Amino acid sequence: MRKEKVYQRKKNKKPLLIRLIFLISIASLILAGFLGLKREESDLEYKIRILIPEGSGYRVVANKLFECFDTDNEKNITGYITGGEAAGFAGPLEVGVLVDKSGKILDLAVVSNKETFSYFKKVIDKQFLKQLKNKTYKDQFENGKDFDAISGATYTSAGIAEAVRIGVQKIAVEQLDLKVPLHLPPKIKFGIPEVTLIILYLIVLVGIQTRTRIKKTIRWITMLAGMFILGFWFTVPLSINKTNQFLLGYWPDWHINLYWYMLIFSVFGMILINKKKLYCNWFCPFGAVQDCMALIGGGKIKIQKKLSTIFTILQRTLVWLVLLFAFYYRTPSFLNYEIFSTFFALTGTSLMFGLMAIFMIASMFIRRPWCKILCPIEALSDLTSAIRDQIIKLKIPKI
Fold it and tell me: How are beta strands 65-70 and 73-87 bridged, if at all?
């Protein structure tokens, strides 16, 4: 009788402990977000000092707008400096611009950005900023006309150009009393990725209602379509960095980012509605890559239950850390270990390429090792499912 009572107490403690860990994790993320907002309040004046011409002084003339003058003659205005902010791929970026009295850009510098380091480095290494020097307030800063975006970093390039346009036109209007050309909002971008996503979901909805053999065939069709179209062709697999961007409130312009709105809200919305992981199980690009590798090697090795539990804890702990750092530093990609871009875009550090190689080899013998060990989307899906249960059933699901 005593043994049964002790066993019952231990059994009851496990859900209670899981509930406590869950609540502490959520509370820590909320606290990190609050502290991050306070920390982000930075001084633009300090950041743009690098743009002050040699031998010039400066003074504040308006909010985030500075006037440069000759130190020998303060009445001799040499230019104006301000910051323009626009959306990059992972969040807002701010560019400081130095503009002369005719409205021409003399110098510029990215003073703040949330981009993944490897993509931002690509833009800087290709000397993209030089394309925007000597542009004027009259330019529209259109890709293909006023500048050429860096391949593989189109969103970052366009974001920088848009921030520069906003900055130079702000100076033109507020200080130079110049009439700037009307800037039309971007047209809605609805192309192959968006169409593919809709078609894939329709096929999946048919697939989950069919018989086993046909279901397997349909699943392979959707997986291969996701891999080649969303992965290799457009390189738009779902990532924790993109998800973090939305969680941080850095919502990009929906006109040119409709795909991401469709993908993120459908993936996590579906889990909130019925707990189904349609993206992961039916058309995740990297999941398809692992399935293909399993065909080569057999993929018959199973991870032991105890080891699987350890990997689950590791997976969720890493995602918690990623979210914690992202919220505190207000940077979606502050801590990044995803290998999606490394594989599909061949962009990343040596460490990321090494990690990718390990999991590619492992996926030949173990079915979807990345999904089971490190995939942050898997852990985020579990977190979404746990929140759903907390809201609906007011309890934390068993692990």
Answer: antiparallel
Residue scoring higher pLDDT (262 or 73):
262
31 & 129 share domain: no
Residues spanned by the domain of 243: 23-36+189-392
Q: β-strands 65-70, 105-112: how paired?
A: unpaired
Residues 171-219 have pLDDT tens digits of 999 999 999 988 877 889 899 999 999 999 999 999 998 877 899 999 9
pLDDT attached to residue 7 = 47
213/72 same-domain check: no
Strands 73-87 and 92-99: antiparallel
| Both structure tokens of 278 | 């349609």
14 is a domain residue: no
Q: Tell me the three state secondary structure of residue 35.
A: helix
Number of domains in the chain: 2
One domain, residues 66 and 131 = yes
Enter the pTM of the model: 0.84
47 in any annotated domain: no
145 and 219 both lie in a single domain: no
Q: Are residues 132 and 199 in the same domain?
A: no
Q: If you average pLDDT over residues 149-173, what whole number do you get?
A: 92
Residues 6+ apart with CB under 8 A from 138: 103, 180, 181
pLDDT in tens, 209-260: 887 789 999 999 999 999 999 999 999 999 999 999 999 999 988 988 999 9
C-alpha–C-alpha distance, residues 60 and 67, integer Å? 6
Kindly write down the DSSP assignment for every residue of 176-220, as one continuous string: S--PPPP-PPPPP---HHHHHHHHHHHHHHHHTTS-HHHHHHHHH
